[in-house]
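Protein 1 of 2
SEQ + STRUCT:
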Amino acid sequence: MVSVDEVRRFKPDPAVYAHLRHRLESEPGDTWLISSNAFDVIGARYAGLHAAWVRRSPEAPFDPWGIEPDLTVTDLEALAERLG
């Protein structure tokens, strides 16, 4: 588990996503963030990560400001099926 407590910043601060990549020893294009919070997804995409938005309610807006998630799913089971 990776926590923002270690960097004392909060999403969508780019330092949070850099910390995630550092801890995972991964490149941005090889790293996924999964969240039901659109701001988390937007921050991850802006930082160059892949991101999946778990849209728990069909009425939930994404408000992407021009940034879209790589995947949109309704639950984690659907995410697992999509990522195979």
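Protein 2 of 2
SEQ + STRUCT:
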Amino acid sequence: MAAHPWTIHDGWQRACVLTRRAARTSSSTTARIAWRLGVKCTLLHTTPEDKGKATMWATLPGDGGVTKNGIILSGPTDVVPVDGQKWDSDPFTLTERDGKLYGRGTADMKGFVAVCMSLAPELLKMKRAKPIHFAWSYDEEVSCLGGMELAEFARDHDVRAEGCIIGEPTGMTVVIAHKGTSHFWVRVRGKAAHSSLALTGESCNAIDYATKPITKLREIAEEYRRNGTRHDFEVPFSTLSTNLISGGNASNTVPAECEFLFEFRALPNETVSKMMQQVRSYVETQLLPAMKAEFEDAEIVITPRNETPSFEGSEEAPFTKLVCAINNDYKVWKKNYSTEASHYSGIAGAPTVICGPNGGAIHCANEYVTPAQLDKCREFVLRVAESLKASPAHL
């Protein structure tokens, strides 16, 4: 096989190994990533319930040790599990096969992280008027909590970055907007009894009553689809769906409890509070009184699980135009998923775009990224860095 700049024996593999270790072991390993790159970093340790996790902020200074302004390059170091998946190779050992690079997180989104890390020695030697900030997070898949912590760090330390790139797997196209994502748990508590006593006043069926707010959620979802705000996203309306449910403990027992989770993916101009007002009003004025008529201590508890705000950048923003020019592609996209972009844009005040290498089988067995995408990402990051050679007024 002919040598390729992205074979598994080069710095990209080493970066992947470091990234994998950071995701699977202690936060001190994350610090060693920066040490190997010759860069001083700051670890932001998490709350006790997330023991062992940390985000990392590392600044590659500009000329004269400048650490303000510049560009943020952001991505997570953790990955989704591989439990129950049938891989053709070790998911945590980068494997080259059939012209592709296989491994958990290669496409989503360790390819971007590893490209940036493997370029660090070159970026450190480069003459630049402005700094480059590496912002490596955690829990991006479930809450973007790490990204929020890093955005707060940038704000609190007055970084005032002139741009931020989130390395999500876009196929190196430029994304300037995405939906917000919110999850809510609903716990319905009724009264258990032998199933022979159903509807006799001796029981209150939690599953029966759980189906009613689920039906209401579907009605609200249909209203968004038919009459809600339209936007030029792939799915042009806000979506609402029930995605998890559990309840009951025996086939001959009226269930006392039922829990379900629903998700709201909101367009940038839609609010979670408006949707939740409809849900809570229905529960409190119609459903709960009916339940309490059967069982005085009946409860319906709605608990927010997590929320990632929507993000809407500007096609006309100078940083967007710069990135598009570097990419030689002026078409921009708006996506249905959520990312850390909303935190860097909203909290840190940084003009933000989403752009990173892609492959296939994201979150699935045999996830991969292609060398061509990594080559394109490498050239892209270098050209972004070269744009920082100019005076501070360049961006």
